[in-house]
Protein: LysR family transcriptional regulator
Amino acid sequence: MTDPDWNNLKVALAVARGGSLTRAAQLLGLDQTTAGRRLTALETQLGTALFVRSKTGILPTDDGRAVIEYAARIEDQVTRLTEGLANAEARVGGVVRIMGNTWMLERMATHLPALLDAHPALEIRFSGRLPPAPLHGEPTVSFWFDAPHQPPEVSTAFARVPYSAFAATDRPPPPTDWVQFRDDDAAGPSFSREMQRRLGPEARVRLTATDARILISAIRAGLGHGVLPNCLGDADPALTRSGVSVGRIERVLRCHVTSDAARLLRVRTVIDWAREVLPDAIGAALIQPSGRNRV
Structure:
């Protein structure tokens, strides 16, 4: 049997990442008929079904997973070859997606000019979508506090970010009233559960939200005290440190990246840039990685 056509393998890879043939065609810039024909040709050549339909979308079979892993390795080899052949000026090029909380991405964005001026062929795509997020074709670096990594990602402790309790400067709320980050779906320990434990049974949570900007607006309005990153609360003249003690709070920010993506020069460049800018951007204290755990 001849080796599978790379164009057909790309369709299988895109179906796995997009969750449907329609999304795969969009990712590859093909019409759905062409994408379907290529997938059928691949299954015919291999003599096996690669995907089955379910209530949640298209899922790979056991053979399909093996083919997807094979295609991903080829994609990685092609990408690394392309980067290796680039000239010195444009060596760091291509797309890197950075995922994280919107408030953090907003502050990181102010530091992007130096990175992109140094690497004109590099394109950064920010995404504030909460995990788990669907896989895309571009290599991704994610920065999350409580989210578990999604295999084949590797998760590494990256930095400590200080938080404090804040209240409205001119509308101090009752000491029992609070607004909180919502992470009810987090697996294992979560920030909201830890804060509920610290606040005790008398605390009354008036609002939960996944976006720091919503919490800031609620705190400004006097709806309640709220725990925020120091870099956000201290920068807002309408907020002041709350008189209610919640103890010292430092959240560990973790970097999630696949081992294949971490080998790419553009991804390593972005991670090094994040190490450089996060102390200033969000007041983070970097966690020095061991040689084994460094990403």
